[in-house]
Write a structure and sequence with these properties.
By secondary structure, the chain is of the alpha+beta class. The chain folds into 2 domains: about 240 residues, Heat Shock Protein 90, CATH 3.30.565.10; about 90 residues, no CATH class. It has 11 helices and 16 strands. The strands form 5 sheets. The chain has a 7-stranded mixed sheet. A 3-stranded antiparallel sheet has the order 5-4-6. A two-stranded antiparallel sheet has the order 1-9. The longest helix has 15 residues. It is globular, with a radius of gyration of 22 Å.
């Protein structure tokens, strides 16, 4: 029997989550990470799609929707009493949680065998939701291939009103089953559901949290950031589309490769570029290196270091006269300067940092 579950032990702990300094871009990347990690068969079927839709409201608040064509959030889950991890099961009789409840609990996690997963290093969906929508709500709709549509909102006001009679812990509600899926008015124009997927809506984010001055500028910067961070995923088939009511261009973003080696990237114009050097560190316990096992392969973990040098003459030919304002403008955009050089750290197929 699946009932309401504690979202966290105390309301004071819940209140502290809103002060973690999580930005809107942090939260969006958290959802893209989750979507790509759980894309499942959509990767094999060449239908791995993520749509990000941002809309400014009349009161200057912002609503952001992130939709994907992934597997959907597992329906039936049994939470392990020792470590709190959710284990997928096949029926309601075996379950004591809905997967949506696990996904929206602080620290909640569902086990799944994933190939080349990005890994857990972000803030998590519930913490992102609390930071951005503490006084509004985050609404989640999801469907697995064999199950019904389910809906659960993370609404702090309602959670505070619902307490465990024994522990006084704030309770997260039970998912609602839907016959026809998310209301049509909530789904961005041009999106079509297939057999499964998830839609997460950060509703009415206050201006002091989203800090968007010009929507067009925000969307352009977001596209470039996503194009760089997820360039390897995009190169292997992930489609990411970013829209607003005033810009419904459904063209997927191209990868942004700082090494200028991906043929389909925005930076391919500065190639061809070959690696000028490559080094591999194998953490097999030899010498001063520790033994670290890769959880996916079971083999010693590997760090591959690649160096690339872009031909200056090609850059000049592509961008024009070095003394022109056009050259300076695009040089800043593409980063061919001291500030743009440096390192890019990639785990799996996701850039997790650059400097």
């Amino acid at each position: 029997m699946i009932e309401k579950v504690p979202i966290i032990h105390t309301i004071a702990a819940l209140d502290s989550m809103r002060k973690r300094g999580i930005t809107l871009v942090n939260a969006i990347q958290e959802l893209v990470d989750n979507s790509w990690d759980w894309m499942g068969n959509s990767r094999l079927m060449n239908d791995a799609r993520i749509r990000i839709h941002a809309e400014l409201n009349s009161d200057d608040s912002l609503t952001v929707s992130v939709l994907d064509s992934g597997e959907g959030v597992t329906h039936y889950v049994r939470e392990d009493e020792q470590d709190g991890i959710g284990i997928p099961v096949s029926s309601s009789e075996e379950a004591n949680r809905d997967g949506l409840q696990m996904a929206l609990r602080i620290g909640g996690r569902i086990t799944k065998s994933r190939t080349n997963a990005i890994g857990r290093f972000g803030f998590g969906l519930p913490q992102s939701a609390i930071a951005l929508c503490y006084d509004t709500q985050t609404n989640v709709f999801t469907k697995t291939r064999t199950g019904p549509w389910r809906n659960l909102a993370l609404n702090i006001a309602r959670i505070k009103e619902s307490r465990d009679p024994e522990t006084n812990a704030p309770l997260l509600g039970k998912p609602v089953l839907l016959e026809h899926g998310p209301p049509a008015e909530l789904v961005p124009e041009g999106w079509n559901w297939t057999q499964s997927g998830t839609m997460i809506i950060f509703e009415n984010i206050e201006e002091k949290f989203h800090r968007i001055k010009v929507m067009e500028t925000f969307l352009a910067e977001l596209k470039q950031r996503l194009a760089r961070v997820y360039r390897y995923a995009i190169e292997t088939g992930l489609e990411i589309v970013v829209t607003s009511p005033d810009n419904l261009d459904l063209t997927p973003i191209k990868p942004w490769d700082p090494l200028c080696q991906m043929r389909g990237s925005e930076t391919a114009r500065f190639g061809p570029v070959d690696d000028t050097a490559k080094q591999t560190l194998v953490f097999d316990g030899a010498g001063s290196k520790p033994l670290i096992d890769d959880p996916t392969t079971g083999l010693p973990a590997i760090i591959e270091i690649r160096f690339a040098r872009i031909d200056r003459q090609i850059v000049v030919r592509q961008l024009g006269d070095e003394k022109s304002s056009t050259f300076r403008k695009f040089n800043k955009k593409y980063g061919f300067n001291l500030a743009g050089q440096g390192f890019s750290l990639v785990r799996g197929d996701r850039e997790i940092g650059h400097a």
